[in-house]
TrEMBL record:
This is Iron complex transport system ATP-binding protein. SMART domains: AAA. Pfam families: ABC_tran. Residues 3-239 form the ABC transporter domain. The lineage of its organism: Bacteria, Pseudomonadati, Bacteroidota, Cytophagia, Cytophagales. PANTHER family: HEMIN IMPORT ATP-BINDING PROTEIN HMUV. Keywords: ATP-binding, Nucleotide-binding, Translocase, Transport.
Length: 269
């Protein structure tokens, strides 16, 4: 059971934004998509969510994505866009309740789910505050709670959340706070695809990485296997160093400044 994309391509006019992309998103796993600006990351997420049509094949639980109604899709997967804005004076709890709209379930059941996902995302302490009064990090956790409320509980069939830069504009502590809660959702058999700009941050939480450049896959697979200098340099067109620390399974990726890189490539007289 999974979201399975096979050879998907998407073109806008004569320009391809995605070319022959294949991947699998499985329940209980986190896949991070990383690439430079304009690599096609958000386009890929929109194709996988059913928002954009594409050539190739996208299947959800072995069925073509196009065979699902909008409500059926909403019951299987939830999407967190880059700008999850709320323009009404809703409380935090009311925002999280918005995720329950596709379910048409009893109020008591909705309340139970909302309570569970707010506990998971540490948003219960400010449940009755107005959403607009929160910090950026707090708002992002509320939006995460909302998308989790949409896909809870992850039975009788697997559920998925697709997150477009959930750590954008957050400070270091807030980034880790949000992704640790995303990672915890995986323990509830929810599959997670997240677009993450920071490769080190993505590697710290993701089971798998997909490196994307100009709409094409540079590398895709288990995180430890993808973290190779030549693939990272190909993805970002910039030299890097991999620093290994004793007891740590993954390297830390450090970009090398252009001046230092040129010194290393200057022949000795």
């Amino acid at each position: 059971m999974s979201i399975h994309a096979r050879h998907i391509s998407y073109r806008r006019g004569s320009r391809y934004l995605l070319r022959e992309v294949s991947l699998t998103l499985s329940p209980g796993r986190m896949l991070a998509v990383v690439g430079a600006n304009g690599a096609g990351k958000s386009t890929l997420l929109k194709v996988l969510s059913g928002e954009l049509p594409a050539t190739g094949e996208v299947r959800l639980e072995a069925h073509p994505l196009a065979s699902f109604s909008a409500r059926e899709l909403a019951l299987h997967r939830a999407v967190l866009p880059q700008q999850g804005q709320v323009h009404f004076p809703y409380t935090v709890r009311e925002v999280v309740h918005l995720g329950r709209q596709p379910h048409r379930t009893a109020r008591q059941e909705d309340e139970q789910v909302v309570q569970q996902v707010m506990a998971l995302t540490d948003t219960l302490p400010f449940a009755d505050r107005h959403y607009q009064s929160l910090s950026g990090g707090e708002q992002q956790r509320v939006q995460l709670a909302r998308v989790l409320a949409q896909v809870y509980p992850p039975q009788p069939h697997p559920r998925y959340i697709l997150l477009d830069e959930p750590t954008a504009s957050l400070d270091l502590a807030q980034q880790h706070h949000v992704l640790s809660r995303v990672r915890q959702a995986c323990t509830h058999q929810i599959g997670v695809l997240a677009i993450v700009h920071d490769l080190n941050l993505a590697a710290a939480y993701a089971d798998e990485l997909l490196l994307l450049k100009a709409g094409r896959v540079v590398a895709y697979g288990p995180t430890a296997e993808v973290l190779q200098a030549h693939w990272i340099e190909q993805t970002f067109d910039h030299p890097v160093r991999l620093l290994y620390e004793a007891g740590q399974p993954l390297p830390f990726i450090v970009p090398v400044s252009s001046s230092i890189a040129s010194l290393h490539h200057t022949p000795h007289s």
